[in-house]
Amino acid sequence: MKERIAVLKSEIERDTERLNRLLISNQSFQYLNELRAFRHFFRHAYDVDIDREKFKIVAEKALKIKERYRSEINRFLKFLDELLK
């Protein structure tokens, strides 16, 4: 029984990773991960001045994600539509 559960868990993890790759590109994932890290720093750095250049870089990446977001989500929705046919 434990072996079957382990196999099922492995298959679910593999399928989840596949769906994640279909949902957003690796590049968008990297941008989002950097934004997440910056947000974490920003929320916890109460007495630290924000580096303007670092903020500019993060803001530029946020704009790049915004540009990519719609096309990547539409591509994923098209994939889901194909699965339903």
TrEMBL record:
Residues 21-79 form the HepT-like domain. InterPro entries: HepT-like_dom (IPR048769). It comes from the Bacteria. Pfam families: HepT-like_2. This is HepT-like domain-containing protein. It comes from Thermodesulfovibrio yellowstonii.
